[in-house]
Specification:
Length: 54
């Protein structure tokens, strides 16, 4: 394997790890955002329900 092929391989591996990291981080951020939105929705419905009970 020539030196240029080794460099290309290392760069490709580095880009692959970078892309994988980006996808994992963005996916976890989306899940976190969705979880917070569902908690706000649950809190809003419980407040409405508690007002109706009074």
């Amino acid at each position: 394997m020539s030196k240029i092929q080794k460099v290309k391989r290392v760069v490709l591996i580095a880009l692959s790890f970078g892309l994988a990291t980006y996808l994992i981080m963005s996916g976890s951020a989306m899940l976190d955002k969705e979880e917070k939105a569902s908690l706000v929705e649950v809190n809003a419905t419980s407040e409405v329900h508690s007002d109706a009970v009074k």
